[in-house]
Amino acid sequence: MVRVDVVYALLINEDQDKVLIVENIDHSTWSLPGGAVESGESWSAAAIREAKEEAGIDIELLGICAVNECIFEDKGEHVVFVTFKAKTKNTDIMITRPHEIAEVRWVSFEEADQKMPYYKNGIGRLIESDVIPYDFQGKQTIKSYNSSSN
User: Fold this and answer.
1) Where exactly are the structural domains of the chain?
2) For residues 130 and 143, what is the distance between their CA atoms, to the nearest angstrom?
3) What DSSP element (H or E) covers 29?
4) Domain 2-147, classified CATH 3.90.79.10, yes or no
5) Can you tell me the distance from the alpha carbon of 86 to that of 12, in angstroms, rounded to the nearest whole number?
6) In degrees, to the nearest 5, what angle opens at C-alpha 18 toward C-alphas 134 and 29?
7) pLDDT tens digits for 55-108?
8) Which of 87, 88, 94, 129 is deepest in the core (most CB within 10 A)?
9) What is the C-alpha separation between 10 and 26, in angstroms, rounded?
10) Tell me: the pLDDT tens digits for 26-53?
11) pTM of the predicted model, to two decimals?
C-alpha cells in the first residue's frame, strides 16, 4: 500500500459568506483548491502551490483545520487529506490549468457542503472550530468515494 498525502486550502471571501471551490476534470468532482504533495515537499508548500496552480491565487496559511484519511484498496493507496485554513493575498481567481480544472468559483457554505460531503460536519464547522476534526473514512474504492461527492 502506497501512502499519498493530499492538501487543500479552505479560503473564505472577505464577507465571510462564501468558500472557494474547484471542479476537477478527472473525476468530475468538486473540492477545495489542492492536490497531492510532491516528493520532498512540505504540506504547507504544497497547499500554497496547489492554490496558485488551480485557482491562480496567492495564499497565506493560517493553520490546519481538518485531517481525513481513506484507504483506496483498488488503487493500493492510503491517502491522508490535510485541509488548511488560509486567506487570499489577491482576489482575482482564474483557471491556470484547464486540463485539470473545469471551473473555479465562490459558493455559499450550503452549496459547498452539497458538493463536498466528505467534510462530515460541514464547511462552516471547519471555519468556526478551534478543534481539528479527524475522520477515518474507512476502506473504499475510488469510484465509491467519488460518487458520494456528487
Assistant:
1) 2-147
2) 32
3) strand 29-31
4) yes
5) 8
6) 60
7) 999 999 998 999 989 999 999 999 999 999 999 987 788 888 888 999 999 999
8) 88
9) 21
10) 877 999 999 999 999 999 999 999 999 9
11) 0.84
